[in-house]
Structures are given as C-alpha cells and as structure tokens.
Design a protein that fits this description.
Pfam families: ZP-N. The chain is mainly beta and about 160 residues long. The chain has 2 helices and 12 strands; from the N terminus they run E-E-H-E-E-H-E-E-E-E-E-E-E-E.
Length: about 160
C-alpha cells in the first residue's frame, strides 16, 4: 500500500513491526532470538519477583499478542489491579503489595510466606456470547522469613548503671 509501512507503530528493541493480517493492519512481533528463551520453557514472561512486602510478575507484550491476548483485558483477582505496560519495552507488569494485596492468598509456614494470585481476563460477554478465550495464569511468590536465632550470655558484674 502507498505510504510508509508501520509508520504508526513503535516497537521495542526486541520486536519488529510486521503485517498482522492481509488487511494491512500492523503489530509488533517478537524477534526470534529474544522469544526463544520464553518459548523453550513455554512461558509468557519472567519469573515472579518477590520482596518482603510486595510481588510482581512481568509478561512479554509481543508473546501475549502471539497468543491473541490483549493485555488491557487482564487483571489480578481484584479487578482494579491491572497490568501496567512499559511504553519502551512493552513488558506488562502485574504487582501487589501489603497495602493492596489485589486478592492474593497468603499462606505461612514456619520458614516461608507464600503469596498466590492469578492473572485472568475480564468477563467480557454480552447476550451470553463470550468475545475472548478466558485466560488464567496462576503464579506464586515465596518469601523466606529471616531465621531468628537466640544466644545466651552472662553479664559480668559492673558498676555502670544505665
């Protein structure tokens, strides 16, 4: 078609712009060398990142598009907790923290705190017809609790009083 191809599309360094369909629509596709590490383990993104009071999971935007998943319809268990897209890398990050758990289930054993949540698609249906396949990506984040150690010691006699 006349005009510059992919003129209206900006892809990240690990993507290239290409034709989505014969209709001339374009999208960003993952570069093979970048996507291979995810495809090899059948993953859509990086492992969860855990910290003491928060957790996050990042998914690759072009891999989501390859599966026909629109990141904007994804949420955690709490519907207000949506993925945030990085405009440069096109990574979609879902996160929660102790102030907003986003529906996370928290379990605790003696040495670990385990956070569990699910990235899922909204129920977008009208008249009983669903417009998109349902997405359920369960993930968990394990935070090891610090060991508490005790020590017994004897205080020597002293004239110092504090």
């Amino acid at each position: 078609p006349p005009g510059a191809f992919c003129q209206d599309r900006t892809c990240s360094d690990h993507e290239f712009c290409g034709e989505k369909s014969a209709g001339g629509e374009t999208r960003c596709f993952c570069r093979a060398i970048f996507a291979s590490k995810y495809r090899k383990i059948n993953s859509l993104g990086d492992p969860p990142v855990c910290s003491q009071n928060s957790a996050s999971l990042s998914l690759v935007g072009c891999l989501l598009e390859d599966k026909g998943i629109d990141y904007s319809v994804l949420q955690l268990k709490e519907p207000t907790c949506r993925g945030q897209i990085d405009k440069q890398t096109h990574m979609v990050t879902f996160s929660f923290n102790s102030a907003n758990l986003c529906g996370s289930e928290i379990t605790n054993n003696n040495s670990q705190v385990i956070y569990k949540n699910t990235i899922m698609s909204q129920n977008l249906s009208s008249g009983g017809i669903a417009h998109q396949d349902q997405v359920y990506i369960d993930f968990s984040c394990i935070q090891t609790q610090p060991d508490i150690q005790t020590a017994v010691f004897r205080i020597k006699s002293s004239s110092v009083v504090q």
